[in-house]
Predict the structure.
Amino acid sequence: MNFLAIGTEIAIALLMLIVLAADLLLPKDVSHRRIGVISMVGLAVILVYTFGQYHIGASPTFFGGLFFVDNYALFFKQLFIIGMLFTILFSLEYTEKLLRYRGEFYVLLLSALLGMCVMASANDFITTFVGLELMTVSFYILVGARMTSEDSSEAAVKYLIVGAASTAVMLYGMSLVYGAAGSLVFSEVCRNIHLFYAAGLAGVIMVIIGFFFKLSVIPFHMWAPDVYQGAPTPVTALLAMGSKAAGIAVFMRILYTAFPILGNFWLPLLAGFAALCMIGGNIMAIRQTDIKRMLAYSSIAQAGYMMVGMAAADLAGMKAVLFYAMLYVFANLGAFAVLTVIDTERGGTSRRDITGLAQAAPLLAAVMTISLLSMAGIPPTAGFAGKLYLFTAVVERGYLWLAFVGFVMSMISVYYYLMVAKAMYRDLTPEEAEYAAPVYVPLTVRAAVLVSVFATLGLGICPEWLASLTNAAVQTFMR
Amino acid sequence: MNDLILSLHRLIDMGMTMAEELGTPEIILAAVFYVFAGISVLGALGVVLGRNIVHSALCLTASFIGIGCLYIFLSADFLGAVQFLVYGGAVAILIVMAIMLTRREDMAHSNPSRSIPHQLAALVVAGMFLLAMAAVALMSPFQTAPADIGDTVTGIADLMLTKYVLPFEIVAVLLLIAMIGAIILAKGVDES
C-alpha cells in the first residue's frame, strides 16, 4: 500500500482534526484568529509538499489504482489549496465578526478541501461520489453558517434540496453505467462496449446532467444565484472557484477516461451547453445589482468558457482549461476579498454598498477593477491569456462558431464588469458624502489582494510559468 | 443481527422451494418483485401527495420497507436487514419525533401540496421519465450476476476493507462533518 500517494489527503484530514481539537481547547471568548492561522500554516506546508510530488514517470496510485495521483490531480489539488489558503487569509476578520461558530467554520472549510482533493484523484465512481458528497455536505453547512442572516439559511436549504436532487440523478446514472459496463473503475468502463446500449447511454447522460447541476450549467443553474447571494461571502468565493474547479476536474477525467468511446455523443452536447452558458450567464448578469449575484451569473458564464476548452477534447484544450481554472481562482480571490471587506464594514454587497470605494479604500477599488477585468479577459491581465488559449484550442478542432460566441460574449461581459468599476470610481453626490469615509482594511486582506493582483497581472504578462505547470499536469494524465 | 439474517435466509429458501413446488418460479418471482416494487413506489408517492405530514412519514416507512424487501429478494440479505433496522426503524422514528417536536396544533394540512397545474406538470414530467426509462430497460441487455452470491456480509466487509478502503475512510470523515454540521445548525444562534 502506497501511503505517500494519499499523503496530501492524510495531511489535510490531520490538519482538520488538529483545528477541531484546538477549537475545543480554546476558551470561548478568545479571538479565533489563531485557529485560522494554524489552518493557513498547515495548508502552506501541504502546498509546498505537493510541489515535490510532481513526477515524470508512472503516477503513484493507491490500492489497486482506484486513486490516481497524476500531475493533473496534483495541479488541481494545488489550485484548491491556494484558493482555500487565501480565502482563510482574507476572511479572518469576517469570520471573527460575523460568524457564530468560528472554529467549526475552519473545520468545515478543511473538510470541503479534503473532498475536493479526493475528487481530483478519484479513478472510480465510488471514490468520486464520496469525495463529491464530502465537499457538498461541507458546503451545505458552510452556506448556512451565518446564523443571524435569513438569506443564509434560505440559501442553505435551497442548496441542500437542489444538491440532493442532482446527487440522486447522478447516482442513478452511475448505477446504470455500472449495470451496463459491469465496473465502476473509469479505465474499465471505457473498454466495455455495452456502454453503447440504451442503459449505458442513459447512465452517461444522467451522470453528465448531475455534473451540469454541480457546475450550475444553464438550464440547471437556478440554484446558483440565490445560493451565491445568500452564502457568507468567503463561502461564495469558494463555491465559485473551489467547488466549480473540483467539479470540472472530475468531470473532465470522467469524460476523457471513462466515456471516451461516446465522444461523438457528448462533444456536441458539451459545445452546445458551453454556448448556452456563455450567452445566458453574461446576459443575465447585466441586470444584477448585487455584486455577489452578478458574480454568480458571471461564474455560470466562466464555466461556459471552461467547457469550451473541454469541448476541444485534446491536450491543448485540457491545458487551456487548467490554465483558466487557475487564473479564475486568482481573479475570484481579488474580487471576493474586496466584497468580504465591504460586507463586513458596510453590511451588504449591492452596487450601492461599493459606491465611492475609490475614495474610501483606493487599494480595494483598484484590486476589484483588475480582478473583474481579468474575468472579462482584457489584455494585460491573465484572463486574456486564458481565453486566448481556450479559444485557439477549440478553433483548431473546428469549432469556430463556439470561439466566436465566446468572443462576442466576453465583449458583452465587459459592460457589467465596468458598471461595478463605474460605481466605485464615479464622483459622489453631496448626499453620498458618507461613502467617502475610509474603510478599515485589515493587513491580512491587503496581503491577500496584493498576491491576487500580482498573480493576475504576472500571469497576464508572462503566462509561460503557469503554462509550463499545466504542460506537466497534462503530460501524465492517466498514463 | 445474525439471527435476523439467518431467519431471512430461511424465509427466502422457503419461498424458493414453494415456488418450485408450484412449478412456475418465474411468474411467482415476478409477482413478488412487482408487489415489493409497488409498495416502494406507492409509498414514495404517498410521501409527496399526502396532505398530513404524519401520513407522509408513515408512507416513507412503507417505502423503506418495500426497498428492504427488494434487497432481500435480490439475495442482498445484509443490506435488506440494514435497510429494515436503520431506515425502517431508526430513521422513521427520528422523522416522526422531529415532526412531533415542531408542535403543530392541527396536522391535517401540515404538508401543503402545490396547485393543480404544478401537479399536472410534475405528472407529465414523471410520466415522460418513466416511459424513457422503461424503453431504456427494455432495449438494453443487462449482464446478470449468478443468483446465489453466498455470504454477503463477508463480501461487503472484504470490499470495504480492501478495494474500497479509501472511500470507506472518507465516509468516516463525511459522517464526522455531518455530525458537526448538525450540531452547529441545531444549536443555532442561541447561547447556552
User: Anything to note?
Assistant: The CA atoms of residues 199 and 379 of chain A lie 47 Å apart.
